[in-house]
Amino acid sequence: MSDALPVSARGLFKRYGELVAVDHVDLTVEKGDVFGYLGPNGAGKTTSLRMLLGLIRPTEGSIELFGRDPQVDGAKALQGVAGFVEGPTFYPYLTARRNLRLLAAYDDGDSRSRIEAMLDLVELRDRGDDKVGGYSHGMRQRLGIAAALLRQPKLLLLDEPTTGLDPAGMRDMRDLVRRLAGEGITVLLSSHLLAEVEELCNRVAIIRKGRIVYEGALDELLATAATGYSLRSPQLERARALLLNQAGIGEVTSVDGSLRFQADEDAVAALSIALGQARIAVTALVPETASLEELFLGMTEGEQPGAEEAVA
Amino acid sequence: MITAVARVYEWEVLKLLAQKRTYLGLISAMLVPIVFVVVLVIQTGGPNDVPLGRYIRDTGLAAPFVVLFFMSIWGLPLITALVAGDIVAAETQNDTLKTILTRSRERGQVFAGKVLAVLTYTFVVVFAMGLVGLAAGTIAWGFHPLTSLSGTKVSAGHGFGLLVASLAVYFLPLAGIAAFGLLLSTVTRNSAASVVGSLMFALLMQLLGVLPGTESIRPYLLGTQFEAWHGFLRTPADWAPVIRAFWVCALYISIPVAAAYLVFLRRDVASQ
Fold it and tell me: What share of chain B is helix, strand, coil (3-state, %, to 5)?
């Protein structure tokens, strides 16, 4: 179990009658990843997550969580795994504390001993004896995190954890995810909030109509969309003249007080030396990339040949 | 395995205790015999055409037996269905099934806990009704010897023993209705449909029992087993209907429970 991947899904396929919800999805989440699972509504994110958690049987394909298949090993495959899909749900007629006690009774180990600490962590200790039926959406989300952390997971699956939260709640949730990742918990985060993913995740998969259109490092994805470089300098004209005469530099334009140009990395390295030698001050020399949002929209909007109709 | 099921069972019972419908059923089961006795105290007539009905004012022991007869038609089936039809469907409707099925308990263990909780509720309902009926009857008419269905007198203590045995046998067909309700609850995922469906099933069983031409199958209908306790009140005791109730009800319980188990084990837990 120690060397096995937190998530390894191969050829995951789910069909409901004529509708294909998930179409041969491969997912690999490695230890320590904060993995963003992106897709528009109805793309198949939640169905994939439900299959990972053993709630839905795949029509085809295999899933392993730390080397165990939920369809073969049942609840044992969920050892070290926790989270929620489509928002956490609880028994509305029980208090938060009793809900957590119930879930602790459904866990192996000593989950019960951590209840108060988890209520503290999500700042619900004072409201722990209130019935969950009276909780706000944000409080339920926080209680969902507490319920997941009771299990001391090594892998946390969170489906849209910040949806419906107010800005402060979203910030707190992101801080919590960041902190948990910092403690070594692998996180698989489904979201359509791209800024959130960009802020938290190191790897992403983008799903469109049930199919993965990208899986890999977020940096690499952003790098694939590099549109050139931007240079800022208080001596803009001297810098422009140098750029125009520098080997490997092309398409130099002035935009909003900066210079934009096309170049490869070697040419940019040489340029930085040349700028220094020419004693031209530089306040910024940065690669310009498309935003994740632009990339996401490019990948998920419009028709793709052969794409089948998909459902959530 | 047993510990895991026991923990699920414990929480299934605690969940039932936290829900209004549980108390609605339980209180109804206890109110009916009280109302029945109060009405008989106020009025002069009696249910002379039902078993032990003519002796109802002789001893409080007769009251619960008479109430058993009336409640078997739809009262207790409805009270049972209220919980049995809801126990899985409510989890689906509230989307809490995903919450408990992503912990450390196997689906089979969760299902077993639910079955045990439903049977416990059914058992408690039967005994609550019987014992409250006995208490109400005793307050009204005293705790005297009981006249059996064979016309012989049995002591009050022996009569109490017969009541307990009768309630235990009466529980069996009701457990059959509970099992059917559990099946509907699992398959339909709709609480109201399961409750109504279970009640319809119980009424159908009763109806089949009174239709002409059904004599050959009558001993094997679930509704007939509600009368198995009559065997205890004969002198000597007639064990044939009691033994038949055991195996007939075992079938009515085990087949729906097995079917529900298979559905529960294999179902997709998707959003509604």
Answer: 75, 0, 25
